[in-house]
Amino acid sequence: MKKNQISLPVDDLPKEWYNILPDLPEPLPPPKEPEEGPSRLEFLGKTMTKECLSQESSTQRWIPIPEEIKELYIQAGRPRPLYRARRLEKYLKLRKTRLYYKREDLSPTGSHKTNTALAQAYFAAKEGKEMLVTETGAGQWGTALSHAARLVGLECVVFWVRSVYDWKADRLTLMQLLGARVNPSPSKQTRIGREILARNPNHQGSLGIAVSEGLEYAEKHEGSVYCLGSVLNHVLMHQTIIGLETIKQFELINDQPDLIVGCLGGGSNFGGIALPFIGDVLKKKRKCKFLAAQSMAAPSLLKGEYKYDFGDVGEHTPLMKMYTLGHKTEMVPIKADGLRYHAAAPIISLLRHHGMVDTVDYPTDEKTIFEAAKIFLQCEGWLIAPESSYAVRASIDEALKNEKMGQEKVICMNISGHGFLDIPAYREKISL
Ligand SMILES: Cc1ncc(COP(=O)(O)O)c(C=O)c1O
Asked: Which of 55, 193, 260, 273 could be disulfide-bonded to 186 (CB atoms 3.0-4.6 Å)?
C-alpha cells in the first residue's frame, strides 16, 4: 500500500518556535516613527501584549512554546499531516517531479491563522486582558481569533472588510457562534470609519482600513488588546510551527523539498512554512528555493518598492521597511481576499531583497486559480481556500516547467486553508 499521508505523533509537536531574526543576512531594519504626529511605537506598546512586543524584537533563536499553548495546538489538531500528492502527479503526468502539501486546512476554523491566534490569546489572558480586538480580510483570521478568545475565556471584537463580510454569511455565523462581535469595516464604531463613510457610504473597505479601526477601537477600550494576523515578526514566528513539523515529516520519509511554495498576502503562512527551511539554507545546511504566489491585485513583492511605509491606511502603525505598493493604494476586490494587502512582512521583504524569495502573480479574474482548485479537489479530494489555490496553481506551473527540463524535483506547497465557507466564490467562478 502506498501511504500518501505523513503524520507526526502528538509527542513530536515542536517545543519551540523558530525566530529567524538572528540568522538573517543583515539585521532587520527596525520599525521607526514618522516625522509627524504622535509616537506610533508608544501607541503599539499600549495596544499589544507585552509578550508579543518582546517577541517582536527578540534575538533569541528558539523561543519555548508554553505548555498551555502546546495543549491548545494539540486541541486544534496539531501536528498536521503532510501529504504526497500522488493523484495530482498522475493527473499531470509527472515523471520527474514529486509534489507534497502541508495540511493547514485541517484546522478548526479553516486555516493556519489558529497557530498565532491561540498564542496571542493565551498571552493576552495571562496578562489579565479581557478583550481581543482585530481586523480581518478573508475572515479566516477573524474566525481564528474568535475561536482562540473563546477557548481562553476572552471577548473578541472583529472589524471585517465589508466587501467580504457581505458575501461570507456562513463565516460570519461561525464567528458569532464563537461569541465574537463582528463589524463590517468601515464602520461607525471608529472615527476613521465614520470619516470614510461620510465620504462614501458604500465604501467596500480594505485590510488597511480595518487595521486602523481595530487599533483605534483597542486604544479606546480599557482591558483590550490588539492582535494582528500577519506581517509582524512574532506572527511569522508563531507560524514556524508549520515548517518545523514539515522538516520532521520529510526526515521521516527520507525525502527533501527543492522548492517550497506558499501564497502570500502579508506573509504569515508563507513565512510559517518557509522560514525554518530558509534558516537551514542560511546556515548552509540545505539547498532549497522559495516561491511566493500573489494576486495581480496586490503584487507587493513584484511591483512594490522596498521602503518604509505604514501598515495601515490610518497611519496608526510605525513605519516598517517592506516591499509596499503604498498604504493608501486601492485594490480591486478578488475572491482570495486574504491576498489583498499592500505590503509583504518585513522579514519576507528583507529575504526577497537578498534574492532568497521568488514570486509569481496571477490575474485578478482568478480563472486559472479556481481551475487549479477544481483540479486539486477532483484529484486529491480536498476543497481548499481561494488563497491556497494560488499556491496550488504556482506548484502545478512549476511542476510542468520542471518536466520540460527533465530534472528530479520535489515541490512542497502549503495549503493554508479549506474552502468550505468559500462555496459562493466557487459557484461564481466555476461554471458547473
Ligand atoms: C486561507 C488563507 N491563506 C492565506 C492568507 C494570506 O495571509 P498570510 O499571507 O498572512 O498567510 C489568508 C489571509 O487571510 C488566508 O485566509
From this structure: 193
State whether the beta carbon of 230 lies less than 6 angstroms from ligand 1.
yes
As a whole number, mean pLDDT of residues 321-346 equals 94
Q: Are residues 158 and 280 in the same domain?
A: no
Number of domains in the chain: 2
Containing structural domain, residue 162: 42-65+112-226
Q: Looking at the domain assignment, is residue 201 inside a domain?
A: yes
Test site for ligand 1: of 102, 109, 111, most ligand atoms within 8 A of the Cβ = 111
Last residue of a domain, one of 198, 226, 254: 226
Claim to verify: residue 302 and residue 183 sit in the same structural domain: no
Mutate to test the pocket of ligand 1, among 113, 159, 300, 335 (most ligand atoms within 8 A of CB): 113
User: Which residue type, as a one-letter code, is found at position 319?
Assistant: L
Q: What is the pLDDT of residue 409?
A: 98
Our mutation pick for probing the ligand 1 site, out of 145, 228, 263, 323, counting the most ligand atoms within 8 A of Cβ, is 263
Residue 195 lies in a domain: yes
Q: Is 107 in the pocket of ligand 1 (CB under 6 A)?
A: no
| Cis before 346 (ω within 30) | no
Q: Is the dihedral of CA 314, 330, 145, 231 positive or negative?
A: negative
What pLDDT, in 10s, does the model give residues 38-97? 999 999 899 999 999 999 999 999 999 999 999 999 999 999 999 999 999 999 999 999
Averaged pLDDT for residues 229-256: 98
245 plus 137 within the same structural domain: no
Average pLDDT over residues 335-344: 94
* Element (DSSP H or E) covering residue 373: helix 367-380
In this structure, which residue's CA is closest to atom 7 in ligand 1? 265
Would the pTM count as exceeding 0.90? yes
Which of 226, 261, 283 marks a domain boundary?
Answer: 226
Ligand 1 atom with the smallest distance to the CA of 230 is 10
Q: 405-419: per-residue pLDDT in tens? A: 999 999 999 999 999
Q: Tell me if 175 sits within 8 A of 146, measured CB to CB.
A: yes
- Dmax over CA atoms of the chain, in Å, equals 65
- Reported as a pLDDT band with limits 50, 70 and 90, residue 120 is very high
Strand, helix or coil for residue 65? coil
Instruction: Mark whether 329 and 365 lie in a shared domain.
Output: yes
